[in-house]
Write a structure and sequence with these properties.
Largest sheet: 8 strands, mixed
Number of helices: 1
CATH topology: Neuraminidase
Order of helices and strands: HEEEEEEEEEEEEEEEEEEEEEEEEEEEE
Mean pLDDT: 87
CATH superfamily: TolB, C-terminal domain
Radius of gyration: 18 Å
CATH class: Mainly Beta
Strand content: 35-45%
Distance between the termini: 42 Å
Length: 347
């Protein structure tokens, strides 16, 4: 069934939404609506905007082809997709020195990494997923995601790739989102639709090979479910109300669920345990100064984990927090990015 893009689904980031509407998907194809943006809030972004520390926000648009420092591959890298600049930036981790830029993309949003440290980028407006070796500026694989707008991804322990499609393309109209599974991260995907989620925002595998997905239901409310390879199982969250779906990620026995627009005015990540179909909150990480952490990424070993927030708020930044403690950021980086969407570390 084709659907119009309802007004309540167009609460996308101002500039990012405008770029999404202008991004081409091929002659005769519909243009991606503002609703393909993972960022839920209206915000006017300016390169003259001020950070909370008073530093000027500096947006460095890439004017050259993709590049990567020759030494980049020797260490861990933090990749940040920027859907406003149509780039993916590579920084040294944890020092955050810019060492690369993947250009030529059309509204890149989702990022994920496999066991070999290869990085996958969902090129939303072109309905494709690109694979890059760690520390390389040249893609080695292109996976078509026909008639879909891929916005998130995750690689399973067995090498399968799950891609969350925020919406689908049906002729000159738009349909509900879906989940595309690429066996061995190759070939053509099998695509599965879940009626309980209209816009699928984020996905993540657990250790057993199940896929967790979140997004908005047909009424615009938060929804989360588990896909076991055969069917979708709706889940509920006990102990929190999610206003705007953010990233979902499994760390050990915990399912971490992000709210881009927490009730206190900043983004929040809830650490939960799954019992049956109920996700029960057992820790809450308030991401202070994170006004719209879109696709945050939790990294590190238990006891030393951090949450990396690509903040697409009025002062775009990359913030790093202790996790699950939360609180003020231990690092706040206000350079390079303009519309950061998703973070991932390639070790």
């Amino acid at each position: 069934m084709s659907i119009p893009v309802a007004p309540n689904l167009q609460r996308a980031l101002g500039l990012a939404g405008a770029l999404a509407a202008l991004a081409g998907c091929g002659e005769g194809a519909p243009q991606p609506p503002a609703a393909v943006s993972l960022a839920p809030i209206q915000s006017q972004i300016s390169t003259a905007a001020k950070s909370p520390t008073g530093l000027a926000v500096r947006a460095e648009r890439a004017a050259t082809p993709s590049w990567m420092d020759s030494r980049a591959a020797k260490g861990a890298l933090l990749y940040i997709s920027d859907s406003s600049l149509n780039d993916v930036f590579a920084f040294t981790w944890p020092k955050l020195r810019l060492v690369g830029n993947l250009s030529g993309l059309h509204f890149p949003q989702g990022l994920c990494v496999d066991a070999g440290a290869n990085v996958y980028v969902t090129d939303t407006a072109r309905s494709q997923v690109l694979e890059y070796p760690h520390g390389s500026a040249k893609s080695i694989k292109r996976l078509a995601d026909p008639h879909e707008y891929p916005a998130s991804c995750w690689v399973a322990p067995n090498g399968d790739l799950a891609v969350g499609n925020i919406l689908s393309r049906q002729g000159h109209s738009y349909g509900a989102g879906s989940l595309s599974i690429y066996k061995g991260a190759a070939g053509r995907p099998k695509t599965f639709a879940y009626p309980g989620i209209l816009k699928l925002f984020f996905d993540a595998y657990d250790a057993a090979g199940n896929v967790l997905i979140d997004g908005q239901d047909p009424s615009g409310n938060f929804a989360i479910a588990e896909f076991n390879g055969k069917k979708f199982i709706p889940l509920t969250v006990s102990g929190a109300t999610i206003n705007a779906p953010g990233s979902v990620q499994v760390t050990g026995p915990y399912v971490n669920v992000e709210d881009q627009l927490g009730a206190s005015g900043n983004s929040v990540i809830y650490r939960t345990t799954l019992n049956g179909t109920v996700l029960t909150v057992n820790a809450t990480a308030q991401l202070f100064n994170g006004m719209d952490c879109v696709g945050s990424y939790i990294y590190g070993k238990a006891g030393r984990r951090v949450a990396i927030c690509p903040d697409q708020g009025s002062a775009p930044s990359i913030n790093v927090y202790k996790y699950p403690a939360g609180g003020p950021p231990i690092v706040a980086f206000y350079r390079t990015v303009l519309g950061p969407s998703t973070a991932v570390v390639s070790p």
